[in-house]
Hints:
This protein has one domain (68-271, 291-384). The radius of gyration is 20 Å and the shape is globular. It starts with a helix and ends with a helix. The chain is mainly α and 386 residues long. Helix 1 (2-24) packs across helix 12 (270-286). It contains 16 helices and no strands.
Amino acid sequence: xxxxxxxxxxxxFLATPALVLWICRRVTILGKIGPIMVLYAxxxxxxxxxTLPAEMLMLQELLPNVMVPLAIPMMLxxxxxxxxxxALQIKVCVSGFLSVVVAVVGGYLLFGxxxxxxxxxxxxxxxxxxxxxxxxxxxxxxxxxxxxxxxLVNSYDIVISFLxxxxxxxxxxxxxxxxxxxxxNRAEGAEMTDIAVADEKKNPYSDLFTRSGLRxxxxxxxxxxxxxxxxxxxxxxxxxxxxxxxxxxxxTTLGVILSFVKRIRAMERSYDIGMYLIYIFSLxxxxxxxxxxxxxxQGVNLVLYMLFAVFVSLFIHAILxxxxxxxxxxxxxxxxxxxxxxxxxxxxxAVMQNRKALIxxxxxxxxxxxxxxxxxxxxxxxLSAL
Length: 386
């Protein structure tokens, strides 16, 4: 019976994105919303309205950690890259880090100073919104803030991140492109291909189970598993606390290197297969949101503090990038990399229909992972002195 439960739970996560894609191609309004937002909403409904079996809870933890490492190299295999990336990375990283610092300091003066251990919380969310949860956990270990407060920070972050995505997907991406005066967004000198996963008129998976499709699927999986194995092996050799930084760095580096191999770049289905893994990731991660743990009455200042940090940093980042002549999509994808961490980058690249933005977002996210802890400590010290 337990084995059957695992199979049913696994089928739910693996098959639901296919059903959602099918529906989105036939229901115009859902097609415009996009499959990722639909999967996010569905995951939150399932996670909060139903008592999930233990098997599904285990898969909730497992699938995000499996899907993203497989998806990143797959989605990079077909990309083309230019030398202009380095200058772009420097601009977006400086802008992103400065934006978070300004927003966190401003949020502290307005709301954070009323939060218990507000300076330390400011340091934690600085690391979280330039790196990710791994940085927040590391900074919690450094600051040793109250465990209940740290739990609230993580719980609120899930909801705020969802609101952030709702804003971006509903109007934010179009708003920033219009603000930057860009009808479409393409990096200079790059060969771009529009992403068709949410296209109502085309199903990129229709020929996947033909003989040629299965042959290519096997090749894609073989190369990808090799990349993951090598990346994991190198990361395990690193000092404690550096695994995730090195792992994602290796996945990205090897994915980029292999994109220069003609036979691998010619695997046309690699991006769409990787995108399907991101759909599974989206459903699983959204189903983990537990609204019952939120205590808005006690944590209103903490909520406002984090909301201010996220949305004000986004708009400061947008203004600075505009001044630095960074394109709108690079600004948006790096904001996602900083605020939500690199695993969410492929999802947003798909929504933007800009495959080239992947490398920009992943690169910025890796820098955030590497420097987020340092920034968090510096910001906490700065806030303590105010």
